[in-house]
Amino acid sequence: MTTSPLAVIATDSPARVDLRAAGSKYTGVWHLSKPAASWKLTIVSAAGGKTVRTLTGGPAAGKISATWDGTGPGGRKVPTGTYRWTLTAPAADHVGRSATVKGSVAVRS
User: Fold this and answer.
1) CATH architecture of the domain with range 8-107
2) Considering only CA atoms, which of 21, 11, 19, 4 is closest in space to residue 41?
3) Per residue of the chain (109 residues), what is the pLDDT tens digit?
4) What 3-state DSSP class applies to 74?
5) Which of 28, 64, 83, 88 has the fewest C-beta atoms lying within 10 Å of its C-beta?
6) Rounded to two decimals, what is the model's pTM?
7) Which residues contact 102 (CB under 8 A, 6 or more apart)?
8) Where does the FlgD/Vpr Ig-like domain lie (predicted)?
9) Rg (CA), the chain
10) Comparing C-alpha atoms, which of 41, 64, 62 is closest to residue 51?
11) How far apart, in whole angstroms, are the C-alpha atoms of residue 14 and residue 106?
C-alpha cells in the first residue's frame, strides 16, 4: 500500500494587511491533503532577510490556521514593507518529506 505525501492543496492568505487599525492581524489558512503532525510558519522581512516572527502549532487535520499580530522581536509592530512567509508541516503518518509552501504579504503599519 502506497501512501501519498502531505501536500498543501489550497492557500487562503491575504496579499496585503493594514495593521494600523487596532486589533488588525494577518491570518493565513492552508488546506492539507492529510493530517500534519505539527507546523511552523516563519515570517521574514523581504528588505533585510531577517526572521521577524516564527509561529508554531501542534497536530492539524485538514487545515492549518495561523494569525500574526504584525509584531516582531520585542513585541513592536514591524515597519511597512513586504514580508515573506514559509509554512512547513511534516505528515502525521511520517510518509514523505514535509510539505512546504511559500508566499508574501505586503504590510502597512
Assistant:
1) Sandwich (2.60)
2) 11
3) 558 999 999 999 999 999 988 889 999 999 999 999 999 999 999 999 999 999 999 999 999 999 999 999 899 999 999 999 999 999 999 999 999 999 999 999 9
4) helix
5) 88
6) 0.94
7) 84, 85, 86, 87
8) 25-90
9) 15
10) 41
11) 9
